[in-house]
Design goal:
This protein has 138 residues and is mainly alpha-helical. 51% of the residues lie in helices and 7% in strands.
Length: 138
């Protein structure tokens, strides 16, 4: 959408969820970054918390991951979802409350071995293709 990263981060901190953050960004698009960062959340259109309650006392029901609605793949953060979108041309993503657990050391080693094997196969296929191309060019 073209929002500055710093504005987007402030919007996410001051609202609850993607929809609220987008509305907040639209409401505050004419204000300078200094005005936004120094203003209180209530003064700049943020979510008002009831008196006596702090955000840390509420259960964290926010999005913990993103999911591609086109293929069902889950992502830990937005950068992974953006990479997926650039490679697959998928554009339909949603927030998910499912938390993706980090890989254990054994899972990480197994995944790394799989990737190395896949890379070796790809390089082997590429070198064979290069040899065929050289023969054709001679």
């Amino acid at each position: 959408m073209g929002f500055e990263e710093s504005r987007a981060q402030i919007a996410v901190k001051r609202t609850d969820g993607l929809h609220g953050a987008l509305e907040w960004l639209e409401q505050n698009q004419d204000k300078s970054l200094e005005e936004i960062s120094t203003a209180s959340p209530a003064a700049s259109g943020g979510v008002n918390e009831p008196e006596g309650e702090e955000s840390s006392s509420k259960p964290d029901d926010g999005a913990k991951s993103l999911i591609c609605n086109e293929c069902g793949k889950k992502f830990r953060d937005q950068s992974q979802a953006e990479f997926h979108a650039s490679k697959t041309q998928h554009v339909d993503f949603a927030e998910s409350t499912d938390e993706i657990a980090p890989l254990t050391e054994e899972e990480r080693k197994a995944r790394l071995d799989q990737l190395r094997q896949k890379l070796a196969e790809k390089r082997g296929g590429q070198s064979e293709q290069d040899k065929l191309d050289q023969k054709r060019n001679e």
